[in-house]
Amino acid sequence: MKRIFIQLVCNAIRLSMVLIALFFVSCSNKGSKSETTPSDEETSQQEEVDPILKLAKVAAGADALCDFHEGMAGFVKGGKVGVVNSNGDVVVPPSYDNKYGMYGYLRYFDSMAVVKKNGKFGYIDKKGKEVVPCIYDDVSEFSEGFAAVNKGGKYGVIDKSGKQIVPFKYDYIAKFCNGAALVGIGGKFGFINEKGEEIVSLNYVNGDDNCYFYDGLARVVTKPEEDVWNYIYINKSGEVIIGPIYDEARRFQEGLAVVKKGDMYGYIDTNGKEVIPFIYDNANDFVDGMAVVYKDGKYQIIDKKGNAITEPIYNYYKIISEGLAFMGRDDLYGMVDKNGREVIPFEYSWGDLWECKEGLIQVKKNGKWGYCDKNGKQVIPCVYDNVEPFSEGYAVVKKDGIYGYIDKEGKCTLDINDNDLKSIISGKKEENEEKERAKEAEKERERQEKQNNSSSSQVSGDVSSILYECQNEITSIQREIEEACRTFVVLGSQDIDMYKYTQMKSTFLNGVSNLERKADKAFDKCARKLKDAGYPDAVKKINEEKRQFHSAIYSLTSKATQQTDMSY
Q: Which of 552, 551, 544 is nearest to 523 (CA)?
């Protein structure tokens, strides 16, 4: 018994010694690790880098930057397009062709982005994988899991794996919206579902922006006779829900649709009930519970019951975004909220104020751009040459010819204090300056050539001065139009609904028309001076330049609208 007890004690002592030894080894290992390996918290802190700093490295030297959409953005370097995520990580290095040229923009829709390679189009996913090869002549953005693709002049539909859902047989296919897509052959239109089945036969003659199913109904048009248009609303089974009783009808928006009876406009609901009377000369769709109507030469804002939110005191209307209506009065522009309060003062010229995105509004003061909030408070100073709308917390800005990203706190990639980045940006500035010098040299060469031509036509020095003055003014107007086209392509490529896009397109075209009229006045003024001076040959030359100018502008605007129309 005593021997057993002694053995147990010895075993206990040996076990204790082993445990003590293990304890010291463990402590030694922990101490060794603490000297060489950081803790998880330290590792996280070391790995965490401000996205603005990482984005600055991407933006430095970029030819163009795209806005963020679905956490991703395209960027252009060396004429090639790459992709960066919102953390500043490059997902796809610049390797694809730009779909729309230097001012075209890669954007993700439905987790897929259109890319171009060797003149053909395909799609990449958010990992940068080319999931649909670049084999198509033209493509649309993905919507509801499907996209229209073109081969040999005909359109079909594919899914995200690239599987063909609809064969190449249509002349036109719009994007899917609420489970249906408008299709057309030979000027006749109908609808298909997500299986490619024609749920509405191709019996209709229109294919405009109103032909989408909203609130369960689509507005379509028949033409039983020449110059006779019947506007009707159908459901997805093709059944007529609201018959051809109106002289004009638009799509439903927020449960109401603009319709015209005789010469006046009003609103109906999805049951066909006339809820707002036909008392307006024109009317716009409801957005954020507000609609702008026009009567007796003035605009005013109403609610969905037809109650007046403002008095009819405005002479211009542009767009409603995030509960603010962009209005104009006496050639000055501001914004009005849904309570009728003028929250952004009417102190801006046309083009110096843009729509509200993510609570911030682009404003221009003293020739420079910045941002104010919905109360008109300046939150990012006006120090930039150009700014884009905010999207997912970031906006593209431009200063001294260099692109960058800015966040809502005003932190900008252009302000990063990094010697390497400064060197890249400085090099980009020199490159831009060299391009500008080359442009100016070319303009001077053209000016000298025109002066020589004028001299050979026996036009006096005074007349040459007239031509030079006209040329300067026309060049300035053309630059404005070119910038308007670039801006429209940028804004039109954003994820906005069809109504807002239609409004934006109308505003863009109206703006271009105004600038063309301004150019016409310059041309006509020059022609009158030349005629009074007795130089009919120079007048003929001016009239020919006027024709060429309008031809060039038509080409520019057509290209811009064609680029953006493809997304809708």
A: 544
Q: What is the DSSP letter of 6?
A: H
- Pull the structure tokens for residue 505: 């397109």
Residues 6+ apart with CB under 8 A from 384: 368, 369, 370, 397, 398, 399
Q: 402: closest CA among 81, 52, 56?
A: 56
- For residue 260, the SS3 value is strand
Best CA proximity match to 210, nearest among 265, 166, 170, 248: 248
Q: What is the mean pLDDT of the chain?
A: 82
Which tokens hold the place of 100? 């729309």
- Residue 195, pLDDT > 60, answer yes
Question: What is the 8-class DSSP label of residue 98?
Answer: P
User: Which whole number is the average pLDDT over 461-468?
Assistant: 64
Tokens of 48: 């965490």
DSSP string over 94-130:
EEEBPTTGGG----EETTEEEEEETTEEEEE-TT---
What domains can be seen in the chain, in order of their start residue?
A: 457-565 (1.10.132)
Specify the pTM.
Answer: 0.68
Q: Is 245 left (phi over 0), alpha (psi -120 to 50) or beta?
A: alpha
Q: At what angle do helices 498-533 and 536-565 cross, to 10 degrees?
A: 170
CA distances for 324 relative to 163, 227, 276, 340, 493, angstroms: 43, 39, 22, 10, 21
Per-residue pLDDT, 260: 94
Among 79, 163, 89, residue whose Cα is nearest residue 126: 89
